[in-house]
Amino acid sequence: MEYISTRGNAPALDFAGVTLAGLASDGGLYVPREWPRFTTDEIRAMRGLSYVELAVKVMLPFVQPSLTEDELRELCSGAYGRFAHAAVTPLKQFDQQQWLLELFHGPTLAFKDVALQLLGRLFEHFLAQSDAHLTIVGATSGDTGSAAIDAVAGRDRIDIFMLHPNGRVSDVQRRQMTTVLSPNVHNIAIEGTFDDAQAMVKRMFNDAAMTDRFRITAVNSINWARLMAQVVYYFAAALQLGGPDRKVAFSVPTGNFGDVFAGYVAAQMGLPIERLIVATNVNDILHRALSTGDYSAGTVTPTAAPSMDIQVSSNFERLLFDVGGRDGKALAEQMAGFEGSKAMQLTNAQREGAAALFTSVRCDGEQMNRAMAWAEEHCGEIIDPHTAIGLHAAQVAGIDPAVPVVTLATAHPAKFRDAVERATGHRPALPARMGDLFERQESYAELPGDYAAVAAFVESHGTQSR
């Protein structure tokens, strides 16, 4: 398997190369040169596999020859052996059509664990082969940071610098990051929004003064290996609901478009998916892009679903590349225009290509609260605000009643206790394994929303590798 950049001007790399690189050198994102595809019989034969064995089947075409099947199995066993549920991503039923895929049974109670527990092990495996040192620089709107830090804390040859918008993540999310006191972990609270933090990370990848001294990589969903690992649970859910002999729809609460793009990848691999419902909050750039072709960034509005308070969705570029004819030069020009003006219109090919599989729904705060209350009242399920946005979208998207709709439950409700309590009257408790979170010591730096200040911090605390 070979990987190419969405902007067409970076060298093609193998799986090990894209895992360690993160962002492409031309500012684009890596995608496979072609999509591997399973036959219906091959997918049917996956029924009944454990999550680890299913993960090996789904991911093996993407990782060869960088990993053998046995190496991949060992890495997956280590990653998913830390989950609190034997099924890893268990499926629950709401009613005759609506289902819930629980993705929060990992160490940090969020769907990011599914990918990042594996990614941390992939980093360590590939670094050991070259005796190299890696500097991870990431931005988080809440859950990526804690999942990434848990995955790499204390690991050899890795430093991690995680930026979060000061005061714009929940107290649980912040403490999950800032109470990890390993010497290779550096938390940075910046003044500004997640989009500001993400822009700084992307700028650092293209800053020769930094890349000449540090081998910088990403744990955000711009890293292909993260998306690859998320493809697996689409197969897991569909197989349990009758796939490949029955189509399934998925509703995905999303801000950065990574989680739902993994569903698109599953469809390209042959999994029969009826629709992918992109569920956004009032920060609705994705809804506007998919419904009207208007991909224009506005001002971020803080909400009770902070992981979705985003106006620039990095992974959307991967979809635009794939459905727009895979023309890297044209997309590079299109994205350069967007980066300059924060506005662009999708081409007809991009709109038509996206419309073949995607539907979008915008959910406001009142609708989100009603969905949380409905799940508790009618099903006895306490769900978090992000999952509630997905559930609302699933219920109003107009999917054929004969098609099961799976809402991705992206976070444990205890990560957003205040919002859940306002909507349901119940204050969810943290699981016992995290019950002392508010007694742990915190450590983080507070910096202005200034790239030079962040770069200087990384320079003074990082380990040079070049």
TrEMBL record:
Give one GO term, molecular function aspect.
threonine synthase activity
* Presence of the UniProt keyword Transport in the record: no
The protein's required cofactor(s) are namely: pyridoxal 5'-phosphate
Positions of the Threonine synthase N-terminal domain: 2-80
> A single GO BP annotation from the record?
threonine biosynthetic process
The UniProt record lists the EC number as: 4.2.3.1
Q: Which InterPro entries match?
A: Ser/Thr_deHydtase_PyrdxlP-BS, Thr_synth_N, Thr_synth_N_sf, Thr_synthase-like, Threonine_Synthase, TrpB-like_PALP_sf
Q: Which UniProt keywords apply?
A: Amino-acid biosynthesis, Lyase, Pyridoxal phosphate
What reaction is this protein's catalytic activity?
O-phospho-L-homoserine + H2O = L-threonine + phosphate
Q: Which CDD domains match?
A: Thr-synth_2 (cd01560)
PTM N6-(pyridoxal phosphate)lysine: list the residues.
K112
Pathway(s) it belongs to: Amino-acid biosynthesis
Q: Which family does it belong to?
A: Belongs to the threonine synthase family.
The protein's name is Threonine synthase
